[in-house]
Automatic annotation (TrEMBL), chains A, B:
It holds the Pfam family Peripla_BP_3. Residues 20-74 form the HTH lacI-type domain. Keywords: DNA-binding, Repressor, Transcription, Transcription regulation. It comes from Pseudohalioglobus sediminis. GO terms for molecular function: DNA-binding transcription factor activity; transcription cis-regulatory region binding. This is LacI family transcriptional regulator. It comes from the Bacteria. The keyword RNA-binding does not apply. SMART domains: HTH_LACI. PROSITE patterns: HTH_LACI_2 (PS50932). The keyword Membrane does not apply.
Length: 346, 346
């Protein structure tokens, strides 16, 4: 807290409605203006003594550096945009990204989309904020990706990968993860017939997971694989189980869900509405490793995405490119960890 | 998409590395610079014909208005800060707020805290971004609240209310909600003994909910109320049930949890580890109405916060004060909706 004299001075500044500038701070502390600005620049070299002197003046005058004005001079806004297609499925991801950017003195401008296809409208808004970089947990078209290159704005995809476009991405290996799940199912007893509940049609992640599961199932000689579609939500998992029952007349040995939340819906529908035993009658597997997968009600067999490692990789990959735009694109693919829940019969 | 000639012109601009300004657009379209800026100002009056003419030039030249530079002129950044104490418990809230600000052309700078007590460090960062306003789903001290007044930055609390400080807030009525839950429990048969699982010690919401429950229980003549503490997380709900068992030797008739997620932990611990029937042996109630409360595994009796109405109220309350800083502080208190789940025995 400022002392009495300082507080009066602060009030004087306030009452004359004059904005306190770094010049005022420099004058008051008897140092150069560049010394003041170094005290507010993350990583800039400044002696302890100098910092103490400047901070005393800052406190007395009630000075706040203007990050936006500084951004115009340094050509850095110290803001990044994070675009997520559905925050409700990614609270941990946004939380992790936000914490890691904050550690680096960078702030997160959050854009949430109702549908992946809304992204082009969002980009128009992103451009206006002159962000230093963008993390996208949403699908972009090659044309949209090209506009980042034109504008020299580093872009890192989170859990979206592109085979024919050179762009940075951090992903969980969806294919490998699904194959591990299928291997678990095939090793476990009596799994012969299968159904897959997919995510929404515009989700690339869902397509990859479904493709991974189908490929491995075919390799294992499974000929009977029914595919029904969901939207990643709990209710769609319930509805999909009903659809499987309608189309097959009974239940397959295992239901493979494109995410955990649909697996919860499927399990609840089987147990509480259709009176099937999970895993006695039907095994259920998911993907993601959300918190509720470990809850005793579900104890779901799933692939746990290493969210902390992936978030750290995405943030450092982006900031490296903000510092050095010449770095080549890079793809980092993290293996998920198989969670052996009791939703697969032994 | 731009036609061939236009695309060449865009490339010329790009190749000379000259930044396209609103002056260039005005020249190219043969209109005034103020007409160009009106086209980018939400709500500004501009004829259809004028807009078409300007937008054609914008498209041809590849112009993007600089929101940050505009912010320096208009003294508006068109950004607001949203401070949340734990994003994992509030994904719906942040999602709703973000969608509603986006509709208004305002962007969200997200700050997440690990603990409510980290807020003062976060405020130092918020000031640097010259945001137009702040929504705080975190507790601030009266001194911290006073700095918003000094800086003329509108502040709206989300689910935090203050009795002795004049400040805007949008809340769910925690006390009324808890009373309704207790009434439900008391009306239902054979509930005589109770335990309360509280949230973290620094959560004002948890304190209010606990106080509401205790007051109503006393009014109803319940003398036996054990209080144990949790941290809003699932595991803490499990642990709290163990602690209740250790301290009482058996289970009370009902367990009142300060949020839904701890109630899920309590239910799972009772059912799957301790072999109690919920609700046959023990009733469990929560608070919040998160999505999983409606899942068949839990079907939890709880108070559903009207998140959409509360988010809309918080956003419009804040933006009204950005437009007109003279508006007096206002508190809006929304009633929660009692969800009659099957976790209370009949």
């Amino acid at each position: 807290m400022a002392k009495a004299g300082a507080s009066t001075r602060k009030e004087n500044f306030a009452s004359t409605k004059r904005h306190v500038t770094s010049y005022d701070v420099a004058q008051h502390a008897g140092v150069s203006q560049s010394a003041v600005s170094r005290c507010f620049k993350p990583g800039a070299s400044v002696s302890k003594k100098m910092r103490a002197r400047v901070m005393a003046a800052v406190e007395e005058l009630g000075y706040t550096p203007n990050a936006i004005a500084r951004g115009l001079i340094t050509r850095r806004s110290n803001m990044v945009a994070v675009i997520v297609s559905n925050l409700n499925f990614y609270p941990e991801v946004v939380s992790e990204l936000s914490a890691r950017f904050t550690e680096r003195g960078v702030h997160v401008l959050l854009f949430t989309l109702d549908h992946e296809s809304d992204v082009s409208r969002t980009l128009q808004q992103v451009w206006q904020y002159q962000v230093d970089g963008v993390i996208a947990a949403a699908h972009l078209s090659p044309d949209e990706i090209a506009t980042f290159v034109e504008r020299d704005i580093p872009l890192v995809f989170y859990n979206r990968s592109y085979e024919d476009v050179q762009v940075c991405s951090v992903s969980c290996d969806q294919i490998e993860g699904e194959r591990a799940l299928i291997n678990r199912l095939v090793e476990a007893s009596r799994h012969r017939s299968f159904a897959i509940i997919t995510g929404p049609a515009d989700s690339v992640v869902s397509m990859q997971r479904t493709r991974g599961a189908l490929e491995r199932l075919r390799e294992c000689g499974a000929t009977e694989v029914l595919q029904v579609s969901g939207d990643y939500g709990y209710r769609s998992g319930c509805r999909a189980v009903q659809e499987i029952l309608d189309r097959r007349g009974d239940m397959p040995d295992a239901i493979i869900c494109a995410n955990d939340v649909m697996a919860f819906g499927a399990m609840d529908e089987l147990r509480y509405r259709l009176d099937y035993d999970v895993p006695g009658d039907v095994s259920v597997v998911g993907f993601d490793g959300v918190r509720a997968a470990a809850w005793a009600s579900f104890d779901l067999a799933t692939v746990v995405q290493p969210v902390e490692s992936m978030a750290e990789a995405a943030v450092s990959m982006l900031m490296d490119r903000v510092d050095n735009p010449e770095l080549p694109p890079e793809k980092r693919l993290f293996s998920g960890v198989l969670r052996n829940g009791s939703s697969i019969r032994g």
